[in-house]
Amino acid sequence: MLYLCGWFSVCFGIGGQLLGCAVLGIGIWLQVSKGSYASIIPNVSFLGASVLCIVAGVLILIIGFFGCCGAIMESQCMLITVCVTCIIIHSQTQTSLAVISNPTGVQLARLVPKE
Description:
The protein is 78% helix and 0% strand. The protein is mostly helical and 115 residues long. Helix 1 runs antiparallel to helix 2 and helix 2 runs antiparallel to helix 3. The mean pLDDT is 75.
């Protein structure tokens, strides 16, 4: 049963690496073919959809690599690194989505009395 969990982790790591390669490939394709056309914020040239895809693809590749190697070598340090990294990314994503989806959050913060 322990080996089944280990091989599941290896397959999940390889799947993560393939997903990272796909996202990285899409980002490179966007950068080469579209350039600054697919920008998220028009005034900021470096923050485009292509750069965002490239950064996300590299992060997914690194996390998949650590997860796959940690499962194969049964390294507790690598697996803890993957777990902590995923928790940090998840919390940052949830915080960003909460701020984006609540446009009145800034106004609500002003209503709190100062001590």
